[in-house]
Design goal:
The protein is of the alpha/beta class. It contains 14 helices and nine strands. It has a four-stranded mixed beta sheet with strand order 6-7-8-9. It has a three-stranded antiparallel beta sheet with strand order 3-4-5, with helices on one face. A two-stranded antiparallel sheet has the order 1-2. Helix 14 links the parallel strand 8 and strand 9. The radius of gyration is 23 Å and the shape is elongated. Keywords: Signal.
Length: 304
């Protein structure tokens, strides 16, 4: 790609222009939040999914990855500082807009958006997820280097508590008929670190469309689920086993062994007013599960 020369110089500008961060704003998470808030002011044709995926990168690299996802018909770029003309001989090749947008500090009037910007769905969910994580920092945060407490053990140890007052709710509106269940503490989705040792599995869960907590598992009702889509109130268990490599008899055995846990997860999710979906990598795996229990929702994951 011909973005590289422009990107390299803009990264140098970015390093020079960035002031020393305060202790409370250091690290990738602060950079991710800043990038999400910056991107929320722009129109995206993909709802901001590319931005969410690349938000932990420096802003110029994020722009390089996602520039083509912008709604260019609604944006005007003006090199008001003259920086892009000087910064890169490739600017003319890739368009002045890329260089202007990737600059570490966008000058006033450099980027003009036509019409009202509605924050992309994926960006809004990522910002909401960030706020949720910090609403319960002692449970969700490793930002201070502290060990994350095990809510699963806590739920098993403590009796079910009475519902909290409605004023303390922070989840989306609950389904009719189940407000008390939803308000119980164990039904709050708490982001917790992925279980280690299976990076491909975790990557697959993180890439799930509209995942509200990419990079995290979610603890609900004493169970650690692989993903949560808040907009549809759906909890996911992701299966990345090489199911198709086994013969039919082994496939049937494997599906039967895993079935009780899937059924238990479904009960736990539904007890808190959530839907439950099993993600698999092949149509054969989907068919095997549905043959054993056709009440389970199974989806073939075409993104991993």
């Amino acid at each position: 790609m011909r973005f590289r020369a422009c990107i390299a110089l803009l990264l140098v500008f970015s390093a020079c222009a960035t002031s020393t961060p305060t202790p409370g704003t250091r690290g990738t998470r602060s950079q991710r939040l800043t990038n999400l808030e910056r991107a929320a002011e722009l129109p995206w044709t993909d709802g901001g999914r590319c931005v969410v995926r690349e938000a932990s990168q420096p802003w110029p690299l994020l722009v390089e990855k996602c520039y083509r996802r912008l709604d260019h018909d609604r944006i005007e770029f003006h090199d008001t500082s003259g920086r892009c003309t000087v910064a890169s001989t490739d600017a003319a090749a890739v368009g002045i807009g890329f260089c202007v947008l990737a600059a570490p500090e966008i000058a006033v009037g450099a980027v003009i958006v036509l019409g009202v910007v509605v924050v992309g769905v994926a960006i809004k969910e990522a910002l909401d997820a960030y706020e949720l994580r910090h609403a319960y920092p002692e449970e969700a945060g490793a930002s201070r280097g502290t060990k994350v407490a095990s809510r699963e053990a806590e739920v098993q140890r403590k009796p079910k508590l009475k519902p909290e007052p409605a004023g303390q709710d922070w989840l989306p509106p609950v389904p009719p008929g189940s407000p008390e269940r939803e308000r119980s503490p164990e039904c709050r989705p708490v982001p917790v670190p992925h279980r280690g040792g299976n990076d491909p599995h975790n990557d697959c869960a993180d890439l799930l469309p509209q995942n509200s907590f990419p990079g995290w598992d979610v603890l609900v009702n004493g169970k650690q689920f692989d993903a949560l889509v808040l907009v549809t109130r759906t909890l996911w268990d992701v299966k990345t086993d090489e199911f198709d490599k086994h013969n039919l008899r082994s496939q049937q055995f494997f599906a039967r062994v895993k079935l009780p846990e899937l059924q238990r997860e479904k009960r736990l999710a539904e007890a808190c007013g959530y839907k439950f979906v099993v993600g698999v990598r092949s149509a054969a795996h989907k068919a095997a599960i549905e043959k054993l229990d056709n009440t389970l929702a199974v989806v073939v994951m075409d993104w991993c």
